[in-house]
Write a structure and sequence with these properties.
alpha+beta, four-stranded antiparallel beta sheet
Length: 133
């Protein structure tokens, strides 16, 4: 039961993330979050890409968290910055240095799983004409 669920998750989740991660980056570029502009970008040579978003609602209490990949073009550094704001006005900023390689690795695993489960089977089942080029 658990093995079947895990296999289904490994098969169906990666294509969703392969599409959603770039879509989230485009959405964050077209619709910037005003609190993030002033809190995240410290220097003019930094560029931020939205890579995660979550919200929590409990009655009148709201909590919004957005995570950005911040790239510094002069120093060639990267960090993931998470900004949390709640209805009381509390702000929390968490920074993790050098997360670009981790994000690229995870995204490449999503691409590999998508290829393995969805594209590779199409190539194997394609009928051959029996003719040589």
């Amino acid at each position: 039961m658990l093995k079947g669920f895990l296999l289904l998750f490994i098969k169906y989740a990666p294509p969703v993330f392969v599409v959603l991660i770039p879509a989230l980056i485009v959405y964050g570029s077209l619709n910037p979050w005003p609190p993030a502009k002033e809190a995240i970008l410290d220097q003019p040579n930094e560029v931020a890409f939205l890579i995660g978003s979550s919200s929590t609602y409990k009655g009148d209490y709201e909590k919004h968290t957005k995570s950005y990949l911040v790239l510094n073009t002069d120093e060639v550094t990267s960090e993931v910055v998470s900004l949390t704001i709640d209805t009381d006005g509390f702000r929390e900023i968490k920074k993790k240095e050098g997360e670009l390689l981790n994000l690229l690795f995870v995204y490449s695993l999503f691409l590999l799983a998508t290829w393995w489960f969805w594209i590779k089977p199409l190539q194997i089942t394609k009928p051959s004409t029996g003719q040589r080029p």
